[in-house]
Design a protein that fits this description.
mainly alpha; Ribonucleotide Reductase Protein R1, domain 1; about 90 residues; about 0% strand
Length: about 90
């Protein structure tokens, strides 16, 4: 699964970045910035994180570390841990 996610260069995680930017920049501005970075990543074959990091309007509010975390598929487990613990408790 990780290999499949890596094939997109992080593009599947663009929404997470947009949602992180939206409170400070507004939804429409955040959407446009991430959409543009996503388009450049697709055109050039670079990863989404690399394109996001080129834009100070994105880097200033989020910082490099948070951008890298938001575009890392292993950090996007959602409720998986809580669900796993719940199932484990029930089966014990």
């Amino acid at each position: 699964m990780r290999d499949n996610l890596d094939l997109t260069g992080g593009l599947a995680l663009a929404e997470a970045v947009m949602m992180a930017l939206a409170p400070g920049l507004g939804r429409q501005r955040a959407h446009q910035l991430v959409y543009d970075a996503r388009a450049r990543a697709t055109e050039t074959g670079t990863g989404l994180a690399e394109e996001l990091l080129k834009n100070p309007d994105i880097v200033t509010p989020l910082g490099e570390h948070r951008i890298r975390r938001l575009t890392d598929p292993s950090a996007c487990l959602g409720s998986a841990l809580a669900m796993t613990r719940s199932v484990a408790r029930r089966s014990a």
